[in-house]
Design a protein that fits this description.
By secondary structure, this protein is α+β, with helices and mostly antiparallel strands. Helix content is 43%, strand content 15%. Strands 1-2-3 form a three-stranded mixed β-sheet, with helices on one face. Strand 1 (53-59) and strand 2 form a beta hairpin.
Length: 113
């Protein structure tokens, strides 16, 4: 017990869980994959076409969506610009989305197939 008498425990600056998770995601280089899945979730939440969505693919700011219904595809075609705004607003409010990632960032265009 005598060897522990000289040890002083000092407090360091407290770090919140958000900061810890953010640092972990960056250090493990998980941001690109996580951002991609957050974009897919934002598509499902903002478009309302999740039941009709067959495939999703994201690259270079373009979100490629394959739909099973031509009627839904036609309706969404005319709402693409509004959907891009809604998705990006949804992503801005998402604490797990890292906007400073160079490879996977905000949606710039939606391509419907």
């Amino acid at each position: 017990m005598a060897e522990f008498d000289n040890i002083r425990f000092t407090r360091k600056e407290a770090i919140g869980m958000e900061e810890i998770v953010s640092r972990y995601i960056k250090s493990m280089k998980l941001a690109a994959g996580l951002n991609t899945h957050r974009i897919y979730d934002a598509w499902d939440a903002c478009s309302g076409a999740a039941p009709f969505t067959l495939k999703r693919f994201f690259r270079s700011g373009k979100l490629y969506i394959t739909l099973s219904s031509s009627v839904v595809r036609n309706q969404l075609y005319f709402q693409r610009d509004l959907l891009v705004e809604k998705i990006n607003a949804h992503l801005s409010g998402d604490p797990l989305f890292t906007p400073d990632n160079r490879t996977v960032n905000f949606v710039q265009e939606i391509v419907l197939k």
